[in-house]
Amino acid sequence: MSTEASQNRLDTLQPIELAEGVEVRLRIAGPLLRGGALGIDLAIQWAFILLAGFILSLTGMVVGGLTAVGLISLMWFFVWWWYPVFFEAGPWGATFGKKILGLRVVQKSGSPITFGQAVLRNFLRYADGMPFLGFGVMGIPTFGFGVGVLVATQRFQRLGDLAAGTVVIYDKVPPEPVVPSPPALETIAPPMALRPEEVKALSAFTDRAGLWSEGRRIEIADHARELSGSKGAAGVTRLTAMARWLQERK
Amino acid sequence: MKKGNFEERRQQAWREFDDLVGSLERRKPMAGVSELPRRFREMCADLALANHRMYGGEVVTRLNDLVIRGYKMLYRSQRKGGESFVRFVVRDFPAAVRKDWRLFWLCNLMFWVPFGVMMAMAWIDLDWVQAILGPSGMSGLEQMYGGEKEQLSYLRSEFGSNFQMFGHYIQNNVSIDFRIFAGGIVACLGTIFFLVYNGLAIGASAGYVTYACNPESFWTFVAGHSSFELIGMVIAGMAGMRLGLAVLKPGRITRAKAIGMAAKKALPLIYGAAGMTAIAAVIEGFWSAQGLPSNVKYTFGILMWLLHVAYFLLLGRGEREA
């Protein structure tokens, strides 16, 4: 059906076939937005560590300082390794950062990820963070590997995503605005048989034509003058008439 | 059928499905939730139909959204309970380690050879050991294990210090396991580096203490938790090597696919490694530094090592992997 056509497209809509034999489309999130989500998560993690560390240190003065130091170590461990795992494996399917930016982690099939997948993709973030700046293996992560792999894969997957078989998608794809053009007064059969993509383009044109000025409509319609056989306003009218014919035929 | 007709006829069903899924998303399932699978298939059929007839635009977007939301609800993964945990401990984990026995020995070599070399170097040429430990490392070791009697139990006499060290060992040692694992995806390099590095560092420490400090205080301390910690680390290394080998030697599938398959095999290994290292942290925090007689601690340590041999050799045999 449309799979073949969409594979060569430049946009981030990924067609995915479900077990039910139907194809849905997921919009894959790109590196910039995911970097933003990571930034928000890091800020939240640091803020939590500082705040909870402060509170624990205060209570440590009462119950014994060393116990508090132990608790801070444990908190550190859970915040850095397990915070993203629990939130991504939970009902949100996203960390706070991803949730705020409207992203979600799913399996390649579009279904929610399992706990094991959350573990894999988040533990491997360490490898995605390479190469490190300064201090050898404990330095500041540059995420060079992660970004490199991300832009080299078709579905924007970093190493952790490849290992876990996950993708990051927009949770809700905002619908494309539909403002139909004024209805065509007549119906005209297209002079030749149209391919599916062409039919789609034609109906998309009439669905959105209301958004554009007259001049813009003409500009777009002129690209299809081979089909309409005329230029300018007449071309627009003929195209909408053909679109109406195609719709009514069904 | 025209687009308008189609929408008119199916409108009602779509709205009902929307309500049903919405109620599930809010975790307050309404009546008739058992019809979800049937209704979901209807939505799929509608979407396929709308795609096929190229109704385009609004209808397809709406149905696409409904199908995705329904799919999420229908295929939610169920969190498994305690039963699978027990099955993992008594069967799946030891079986997974045994299945990769070649990697197990390879990772053992990568740790124990540098360890043994550094141990020996303490007698042959101490410069090597000193170069690895550095002045601060050596003075730290002397402070902990330098005295005539056991000093660790005195260092741990302040209230809460056992818990402090437990927290530290969890944070430090389990993180090392995870890094050993993650580093493997870079063509095994990270795993090899961490295993060899730890072998050198731990071997140098053990060699230096045995040569220059009070060996008994050191060996009684490490006897209890060493089996859990070191075998755990080696198993984390196996998990990392699995990933790395998939990158280096994917076989007849694509690299991306090979990494995915290797990760699935590595998952039980990394769970088990993390669990073992966590147990090591408990022992190291609350048992290893107790002021008990040396032979009690050595006996406990030897028992733990034997327990590991028995665990990995005997458990989880006979049953086919699910």
UniProtKB/TrEMBL annotation, chain A:
Keyword Membrane: yes
Membrane topology field: Multi-pass membrane protein
Broad class of the protein's primary localization: membrane
UniProt domain RDD: residue ranges: 29-165
GO cellular component: membrane
Pfam families tied to this protein: RDD (PF06271)
Organism superkingdom: Bacteria
The protein, known as: RDD family protein
Organism: Haloferula rosea
UniProtKB/TrEMBL annotation, chain B:
InterPro entries per the UniProt record, alphabetical: SpoIIM-like (IPR002798)
Coiled-coil regions listed: none
Transmembrane feature ranges: 103-124, 180-210, 269-289, 295-315
Keyword presence, Membrane: yes
This protein's UniProt keywords: Membrane, Transmembrane, Transmembrane helix
Superkingdom of this protein's organism: Bacteria
Protein name: Stage II sporulation protein M
